[in-house]
Amino acid sequence: MAAVEAAAAEVRHAVLADSDASHAAQRLARAAAELARLAPAAPAAETDQPPVTKPVTEDRPRTSRAKRPAPLDLDTVRLERSSDPTRTGWRVLAGQADAPILLGFLEPMLSVTGRRSSRWEAQTSSMTRVHGGPWRNRIDALARLVDDYQQAASRLQRRTIT
Under DSSP, is residue 52 helix (H, G, I), strand (E, B) or coil? Predict the structure, then answer.
């Protein structure tokens, strides 16, 4: 096993160094073949069960589809601090408090030195960036995120009507 790991490390080093990895790959193949020769074969399972002759899983049509966004009641749009430690910004929610709709996220941009800048970025709930950012302040980013969501909802409704 150690020979396989050493050969794999040699291949990785050759690839990262952008050099010829063929010799290292041959060593890896030889080490893997030696390991396969030395490893005992798994014993055949002895069962009284008949062999499986039909698939266990059934093919069913897929019923789940991506939810289509519905037009928003703009009075219900609200910001909440993100409780996720990896997301430093705000979650944008809409709808009733007991069944909120996640519109996306607003996050402050970081400068090249790693400090927080005054610009804001908006991301949809599917983690795609809203086109046109970063914006000067959080309110501009919020307006663009809500506008992006509303445009997506109207595009989907137009397709279903025609």
Answer: coil
